[in-house]
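Researcher: First entry.
Model:
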Amino acid sequence: MKKGLTTVVVALAAVFALLGLSSQPVKASEPHYTITSDATYAPFDFQDKNNKYIGIDQDLLKEIAKAAGFTYTVKPMAFNAAMQSVASSQADGVIAGTTITDDRKQVYDFSDPYYKTGIAWATAKNSKIHSLSDLKGKTVALKTGTAGAEYAESIKDQYGFQISYFSDSDTVYRDVINGNSVATFADLPVLQYTIKNGTALKVQNPKAPFAAGDLGFAVKKGENQALLADFNKGLATIKKNGTYDKVVNKYLSAKASTFTGSAKDNSTVWGILKTNRAAFWSGLKQTLYLTVVGIVLASLWGLLLGVLGVSKNSLMRGLSTIVVYIFRGMPMLVLAFFLYIGIPAVTGTKISAWTAGILTLVLNEGAYIGAFVRGGFNSVDGGQMEAARSLGLSHGQAMRRVIIPQGLRLMVPSFINQFIITLKDTSLLSAIGILELTQTGTLIVTRNSQGFRVWAIVAMIYLVVITLLTLLSNWVEKRTNA
């Protein structure tokens, strides 16, 4: 039994080593940076019909880097995750339509302003809400962390409205259109772009935006000052040579279809599926890859926890119980943020989003597997152990040759079911920037504002895959019971 445990531990250690948990220092002479960005904030940051990240922020960053002589890698994710990645030193800088505020200056150092914006508020197209006073007693939908949210929070008591928070813009717009809330606040260019793209909203103050503010590129306070200086240098250069104006005008004056595809393609499920088939396929492959790697490692980890849970050693049983209790009780999203943002903030060691995602799946799913593995071993008739011991086998030999084989056979359906659960749980990893199927859907919706059709496609893809896995489960169960 000790030999079997050692094998499992060594296998887990080897795989986790391959995941690259250790940070690899970049040579000081290489001006290459990791930049995070909001993935769903058109026209500043979004994905075009060719699945390329574009927008005012992205094009300005590209031109600034060219002018200042540095290179970079962009990691798009949710706005809050993007900002926290920089605060925890997971990334060097962030450009995400970030308004420069006194509170943020306590945590970040900002570049020279690269865009002046103002806050607008919008309602459903046929809404009877026309003034801020009409918001009294109503609910307003806001995207977390934005300047629009900050402004709305500052006036909510004055005008007596309630607030609902969401992590992406399209969900905010749909909440208003569907009548769950009556209005939203956001940067004026953002609302104008989404309306031009066909979203049924109406801006109530297009000529008089509130709380005009500056957008800035940010780095962690006291760090990456060379990057900040390079950004400012490049920004000054492109403003002087006219490139800046070309970039901004490109997105504020062009038709939305230039970036989203034709209205005909976006008006049907088949058109969206055909236009974005490469993106859907890529997202599905990443989902399946995460699922397979996650369930294999989680099974090894869960098997170890299960074996420890039926050990004769009370300390080992207690350890197994505690680990299972902790990781079954912790919400997966919290665990993902803890691994990706919390630990690096304390240790200073960078962990890639993919590694954090796999560890999240392994620790969470492995805890559930450990619980049913222990239960499976305990469900084997007690007489089996007595018979094995009466034949001269030690406890470890009896477990390895008699109890474990019988227990694993009983657990096959549970393993397949956990595979299906892991597949669905991968969708939560989109919060830390992993481009799996759910995040792919979010990016497409941000581009074409066709939430119902896109999510119908995503739901059908999940349903087809889960149906196939269910059929596999039934087939395996019949084979093992034959």
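Researcher: Second entry.
Model:
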Amino acid sequence: MIARSIAASLRKRDIHYAWVVVAVTFLVMLVTAGAVGAPGVFIKPLEEDFGWRVDEISSALGIRFVLFGLMGPFAAAFMNRFGVRQVVLAALSLIIGGLVLSLFMGELWQLILLWGVVVGIGTGLMAMVLGATVAMRWFAARRGLAMGLLAASTASGQLLFLPGLAKFTEVYGWRPALGLVCGALVLAALAVLALMRERPADVGLARYGETDVAREVPSTGSLGSALLAPLLVLKEAAGSGVFWVLFGTFFICGTSTSGLIQTHFIPLCGDYGLAATTAAGMLALMGVFDFVGTLGSGWLSDRFDNRWLLFWYYGLRGLSLIYLPFSDFSIVGLTVFAMFYGLDWIATVPPTVKLTAERFGDGKANVVFGWIFAGHQIGAAFAAYGAGLTRVVYESYLPAFFTAGVLCLLAALAFAMLRTIEGPKRPLAVSEAVA
């Protein structure tokens, strides 16, 4: 009733309810991303409280990144089968439960179970697939802009919350700070309950940019078919070279962003004498520039060849990471890095989603993108653990940052060599299972 009333009121003002759904999704992804990014602030306090090594803590974060990614294609199938609203509420409940229980942990295996497995599954049930699903269901036009806005929320949540969280942790400790994160997740769940709806037809509307209301019949397949569908989609998608280019470059995207910067940037700056609050402030600056860069990327992806956009995004990111070891970690040097790198943090997402939809079609694109996003998170896990191990073995994070920069340059070359994006050639055999 609330949603229909708001939709009717907005329609009189020529505003589509799709933007309300985007706003709720933005909030959910923002808060969830903040929860994902919080452990980067807590690494030092956990070392001090429990005596755990950086690589031991990083192993839990690596597991979380892997599950965060591997759940993506199944999350897309679950959203198709059970509904976005139900899946998001279940995911938020898992995350809140895992974080609350971690307030009482005292052993490393508990950290791995709660922050690695439970939170990994919970965040994986939404991840970037949630934004892709909302953009595809609610938008026929301006899809790139909507995806850019939702993608920006992910990085902004990871980065903008961290300065305040770092200061709060410094004053009160990591447990009260984690309690604040749980409170924000509860507020997001209430917004989903009140305002999230599955499709435009639920509030009597067509998709944004269309005029005909599509009355789609929800899938009634079994849980088994929902679990099998992503594997069948993967089998078909794996026969396309485009899929492997997108998967491999998104692996590098994860290696060079969330697994590296989100997890290890604050400890890296600490090695050079910067306070956690100062380093978190740099992350916040990245978040501001990322918001601008990702929105701009969404706008550009609706107008230009997405392959060349990705060529420039990966190339510029690689150069910024290679520059970082030469910044002397002064405030000026880090500010230049934060601005340059921040513009490119999640800018790769809108064009990657667009290329996925162009190649595989809207009917299965969210599931295919789920598998591509799995590559992103495997890369993030690789960097999260690998950079921690580098710090222990070589007493420096810098080799990991330099390696990530070189990988980004290789990703840019991959898109320079990708000449065509062919569309889907035949109906999807498993459409009944994922529709």
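Model: Note on the second entry: The CA atoms of residues 9 and 147 lie 25 Å apart.
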